[in-house]
Amino acid sequence: MRDFTSNVGVVSACGFGLSKAATSIGYLSAMGSVTRNIGFVTELWFMLASEAVSLVCAIAIGSLAARGRIRPRSIPQWQALLVFLAGFCLSVSGLLAELPAAASAGVLGAFYGVSSFLFCVTWLEEFAYQEPRQSHKYMVAGLCIQMLVVALVSLLPSFLIPASAMAAAVISCLCYFDATLRGPGSLLSNVDASARPKRPASPSVVEAFEPVTARAFVAKYGAAFACLFVLVGVVGILHTSVLGSSFEHIVGGVSMWVPLAVATLVTVVAAVVALHLPDPTSVYKAVLPVMLVLLSLLPFMGDLLGPFAGAVMIACYDVCGMLFLFFIVDAAHAHRQQSYLLSSVYMGGSNGFLALGLGIGFLLNCLSGDYNISLMTLLAFVAIYPLCIAFVVVMRRSMQGARRAVQGCRFESEDSSRETSPAGASVSKEPTAVALVASREGDRGDRAPVALASSEPDWEGALAAFAARYRLTKRETEICSYLVRGRSAKHIAEELFISENTVWTHTKNVYAKTKVSGKDGLMNLFESEAFDR
User: Fold this and answer.
1) Which of 112, 266, 385, 454 is in the most buried spot, having the most CB atoms within 10 Å?
2) pTM score over 0.85
3) Pick from 208, 476, 478: which is nearest to 337 by CA?
4) Which residue in 108, 122, 106, 134 sits closest to 169, CA to CA?
5) Are β-strands 427-429 and 417-419 bridged in parallel, bridged antiparallel, or unpaired?
6) Which residue, among 341, 333, 339, has the nearest Cα to 206 in the 3D structure?
7) E strand or H helix at 521, and its extent?
């Protein structure tokens, strides 16, 4: 079984790395229409069209996923391949030569926007089906493959670039087909178990995904996404603000495989050193001082820093972007949330803020020329503010989370004992939320698992027996673990990242199966059956 798992993982790593390499080559060459890139963005009209189309796709897929109307693995990758190949074929065939340059770039950008979006969401969905530790390992390997392929392609003659990108995309799609065919949750993995060992499916795949409200999503992931989006916007501001000026070499002199290589190495080190990959907000706190120092020095040492400053800032964004891919897969596992929703927000927000940054950069360029203001001073002034504002938001979220954790510990300690004997002779501790779901939440980093003393009852076993007796589903069991401790629907919704209506639906099912009329009746029933035996 280990060999089978490894084979599927190796195929996933190769396919993921080649898809990232193919889209990177398509990005840097504007689908084969340019031979020289000018830093972070190659052809502006190409990028604007790509961002617009990707944003539309993200809104459409994300809205459906948020309502639970997209089934897992329902988006095939062959669609991405066809659009990707069509864009390159149009570029090399010369069919767009009669169109104006902006229109031609816009058409290619639209093809790129659709294909890159679909490649991203399909591979992240595939890794969401794998075990978290294994998926992390293979995603790191895939990023290393991307770095090597992009570096090698940069050495090729320009006429070979489209062929290399298309070949990488084709191989990636074949790997994806093989991984989905033989991986967990597939049909083939469950056929002929004696010849092909069946891999255990992840809980996030087996259990149904549930709708989520926008408010709950922002409360859970808002700070993490804000960090990434701000970095994308600042890099976009840096790019277009210096175009046509004496400082254009800051971005124009950057060989894009260099920051990609640096970011990949940093990501690999983070994956090896840490037990689990760090939260994007933690990474943002680490790269923020670097960005602030470089932006502060640009007005005084812009000529000396040159491409070094641009490469470092792009690398900082790349690190956060890479680690965000792991964050999406982790979140899909931890909260049973569709990776389609998370990756749609990731792709749509990144492209939207990049477009915003490019627009602000153009405005800064015009203002510096019209009003004779130092461009580097204006750039530093405008870029530093959003970086600091995002940092304040992150710190505020961290402090609020710490306060909630302290309050939760106090509540648990005050409410940790309940008399279970009619005579009051024996006193036992009530299970905490973490103790009841420790096996599920323990290694996700959401909260520290609580170790129960050997003299305490087996609360997890008691809950499992209670759920088996009344045939509760996994989600109903999880809701029940909160109800028997007197938690409100609002509290449960916030803890489990679901809507209150969803909580009430499961709560009614629990009441119906246990034949009780309310929370008090459920608590009494649970205590009498679980601890008075």
Assistant:
1) 112
2) no
3) 208
4) 122
5) antiparallel
6) 333
7) helix 519-531
